[in-house]
Write a structure and sequence with these properties.
The chain has 467 residues and is mostly helical. The chain is built from 23 helices and five strands.
């Protein structure tokens, strides 16, 4: 039944049902029913057939998603499929049913910017536009955070049901905009407060400078003493100068050896074909569908020009539980590229998505998040692709197709392997080591305004590109 539904064979579906097949059986992988599979594959006729036979439209998968949750994510071109699910059948549709994180199909459509689907939902007599998920977010919150202006306008102007903008016990949607909105100037008050904080913290620097000026006389006396010492210690000065020359020569020698080694690495022939056996293009593991940057929109746009398989809550593909080695084995054997997209565009913000998910599993990471300079500082040379190096998703896709067709070019991104020493040590071991080192050296750094360093203006950006 599930196979027939996935391929949309209505005649076969009818034949199986007449023979006694159970429409509402769930599989053991992700809890999908035949209706889930039909929706996943956009098989409208199969959906309509099963509804006419009385399929349970409210069955939930392992994530708590009903078939309508899945349909709500689909592009507006598939609104006919949504209409079919909204058609009254023998099984009464629960349009406001929540998944495991409390989101309804309307939440999903608003998060993904499906304007036509949202319009269909709003016309349903039982739709609740004020329903909140587990984070106390309404559908309007989701639309605002994802910057889907058309959906926001539609929600605020819909005539079907009064909209309560102040329903959330936390903050209403207008105050739940991402922090970067204020840093970019959308809420000027935020910048004013930061500037004020910097001004208050600046006094410490001024006091230090004043103290330095007050002690200036002592400095002159020290200079005088220094002149006397120079008069009687010419031999010591020559020895120090000779030692300094030796240090410079040693440093120059080391730099030369390092440059020679780097050149040798560049010329080294790659003896492993990292493209061998890989038949799929781009993969992405993600379950945060509402980040503060536009990674979801960019991934969707990229998917128009090259195969992009999204695993997890935000996509149409499923693996086993999170961080299961089986998923990473599949990634390493089958895929050539991985979207190492962070959930925010902030300086120095590079997570396990880049190092562990991608580099550790022999796929080329396509990165978004930190500034390009930040990746250059920490990553092996020519080991990743930054999406900002391309003017559009279409242009990036064309380059990926080029690498996919040319194993030699593809393997250029793995020349760094075997050229250095890499220590796979638990994160907390590094943290403890650094703390002990700092305590041993008795080093202390005082930050007058920690907030300005951690989340001040320019640390994170709301726009898509740094450059």
């Amino acid at each position: 039944m599930m196979a027939a539904s996935e391929y949309g064979n209505r005649d076969l579906i009818d034949l199986l049902i007449e023979a006694g097949a159970d429409l509402d059986t769930s599989d053991k992988i992700n809890g999908y029913t035949a209706l889930h599979y039909a929706v996943e594959r956009r098989q409208r006729d199969a959906v309509a057939s099963m509804i006419s036979w009385g399929v349970d439209v409210n069955k939930r998968d392992i994530f708590g998603d009903t078939p309508l949750h899945l349909a709500a994510r689909k592009r507006d071109e598939w609104k006919d499929g949504v209409s079919a699910l909204l058609t009254p059948g023998k099984s009464r549709l629960q349009i406001n049913q929540k998944n495991n994180i409390g989101r309804t199909p309307l939440h999903m459509a608003c998060s993904w910017g499906r304007t036509d689907t949202v319009r269909l939902f709003l016309s349903h007599t039982e739709i609740d536009v004020n329903v909140m998920d587990n984070s106390d977010d309404t559908p309007l919150h989701r639309a605002v955070q994802e910057k889907h202006c058309e959906v926001v306008t539609l929600l605020l102007t819909q005539p079907y049901q009064p909209f309560d903008c102040y329903l959330s016990p936390a903050l209403p949607p207008i105050y739940r905009l991402p922090n970067f909105y204020y840093q970019e100037g959308g809420g000027g008050g935020g910048e004013g407060e930061e500037d004020k904080g910097e001004g208050e913290g600046g006094g410490g620097r001024g006091e230090e400078e004043e103290e330095g000026e007050e002690g200036g006389g002592g400095g002159e006396e020290e200079d005088g003493e220094g002149e006397q010492e120079e008069g009687g210690g010419g031999g010591e000065g020559e020895e120090e100068e000779e030692d300094e020359k030796k240090k410079v020569q040693e440093e120059e020698k080391k730099e030369g050896e390092e440059e020679d080694r780097e050149e040798e690495v560049r010329q080294r022939k790659q003896d492993v074909n990292y493209a061998k056996g890989k038949t799929k293009k781009v993969a992405w593991f993600t379950s945060n569908c509402c980040p503060t940057n536009n990674r979801m929109g960019y991934a969707e746009e990229l998917g128009k020009y090259i195969q992009v398989d999204i695993y997890g809550f935000c996509g149409t593909k499923t693996c086993t539980k999170k961080d299961d080695p089986i998923c990473f084995e599949m990634l390493e054997k089958e895929y050539k590229f991985y979207l190492a997209f962070e959930n925010s565009n902030c300086r120095d913000y590079i997570t396990e998505k880049f190092m562990r998910n991608a580099l550790q599993h022999d796929v080329i990471p396509i990165v978004m998040g930190a500034h390009p300079d930040d990746y250059r500082k920490i990553a092996p040379e020519n080991s990743y692709i930054h999406y900002e190096d391309f003017n559009s998703a279409k242009e990036l896709a064309a380059y990926l197709h080029k690498l996919d067709k040319n194993d030699t070019l593809y393997n250029e991104y793995f020349k760094w392997k075997g050229t250095g020493q890499f220590y796979d040590v638990d994160l907390w071991c590094h943290v403890c080591s650094m703390l002990h080192h700092a305590l041993d050296d008795k080093k202390q750094i005082w930050y007058e305004n920690f907030g300005a360093w951690y989340a001040g203006k320019g640390v994170c950006i709301g726009k898509d590109r740094w450059t």
